[in-house]
Write a structure and sequence with these properties.
The protein is built from four helices and six strands. The protein has 166 residues and is of the alpha+beta class. The chain has three domains: 38 residues, no CATH class; 58 residues; 49 residues. A hairpin with a 5-residue loop joins strand 2 and strand 3. It is elongated.
């Protein structure tokens, strides 16, 4: 397995040395580095740079949210397992921040879906009006290929979704 070479974020050189570590309350020891060229000190950004909470806590809360729990229920769940609790708004901010990072990565991935799709609709009320969420799901991989909102669920709306898929 190939390890990622640490580079200086200031001058982009690989000519660096380890410069001790710092102890954080929630994330443990973090390795410090010093550039031999520009003499600046830095730590390597692992995606959780300047986050006060442990990466396991952040990823667990995001996973719980995307598995259907509300931010308040995620907060209550975290209270049982982690000594320092966070607010539901903190959980929400983590979801926003890391969803953007993940979408940059996942937008470049190519989905390998089969030739058979299943279309399903679900009704919901919004501002007193009946609306429909129409999803198109690959039957083998269970990926959501397309999703759209409509004010009705007629054939014209399904045709629009079908045109979008082609």
């Amino acid at each position: 397995m190939e390890t990622k070479q640490t580079i200086c974020p200031h001058c982009k050189t690989e000519n660096i040395k380890k410069n001790g570590s710092r102890q954080t309350q929630n994330r443990g020891k973090i390795q410090r580095y010093q550039c031999k060229e520009c003499n600046k000190k830095f730590i390597q950004d692992n995606g959780f740079f300047r986050m006060r909470n442990h990466p396991k806590k952040i990823t667990a809360s995001i996973d719980l949210f995307f598995n259907g729990l509300s931010t308040r229920k995620v907060q209550a769940h975290l209270k049982a397992f982690f000594p320092h609790n966070c607010t539901n708004m903190t959980v929400y901010n983590w979801i926003i921040k890391y969803s953007k990072k993940i979408s940059k990565f996942s937008d470049g991935l190519e989905l390998k879906v089969g030739s058979e799709l299943q279309i399903d609709e679900q009704s919901y009320s919004r501002l007193g009006n009946q609306n429909w969420l129409i999803d198109s799901i690959d039957t083998k991989t269970r990926f959501v290929v397309a999703s759209s909102f409509h004010k009705s669920r007629g054939q014209e709306d399904k045709k629009k979704l079908k045109e979008f898929l082609n």
